[in-house]
Amino acid sequence: MPLYEHTFIARQDLSNTQAESLIEHFSTVLADNDGKVVESEYWGVKTMAYKINKNRKGHYAYIRSDAPAAAVQEMERLMRLHDDVMRVLTIKVDEHEEGPSVQMQKRDERDSRRERR
Question: How far apart are CA 91 and CA 86, in angstroms?
């Protein structure tokens, strides 16, 4: 099956648990349509470069999946209909990278720099 990477932004007024439950919800949509979630990450609340729907910040989430195209289309359709999701980006990749994403690596590097002080 094809490999995909999905990134979406949820509204800033959600709690962290609600944003993480969105990841679980869309993961089950993929699983129900014969797909498989390889890895998912919650990146936290980040400031956006420009306002989207009058929001300056948003909850960022990332999902790596191994799913058929029909499952991805269904998940994207449900994301577009969901009121809490502001933006969606899906990319088809040849292979998934090992380890955490670049966003999570930056956070780890910041934590190690604080320890040295």
Answer: 17
Instruction: Tell the residue number behind the tokens 């058929």, with chain if given.
Output: 68
Question: pLDDT per position in the chain (117 positions), as tens?
Answer: 789 999 999 999 999 999 999 999 999 999 999 989 989 999 989 999 999 888 999 999 999 999 999 999 999 999 999 999 999 999 998 887 777 777 777 655 655 655 555
Q: Is 71 helix (H, G, I), strand (E, B) or coil?
A: helix
- Residue ranges of the domains in the chain? 3-116
Enter the pTM of the model.
Answer: 0.82
Tokens of 80: 């577009």
Q: How far apart are CA 9 and CA 49, in angstroms?
A: 13
Homologous superfamily (CATH) for 3-116? Ribosomal protein S6/Translation elongation factor EF1B (3.30.70.60)
- Strands 36-52 vs 85-93: parallel, antiparallel or unpaired: unpaired
Identify the residue whose tokens are 């930056």: 106
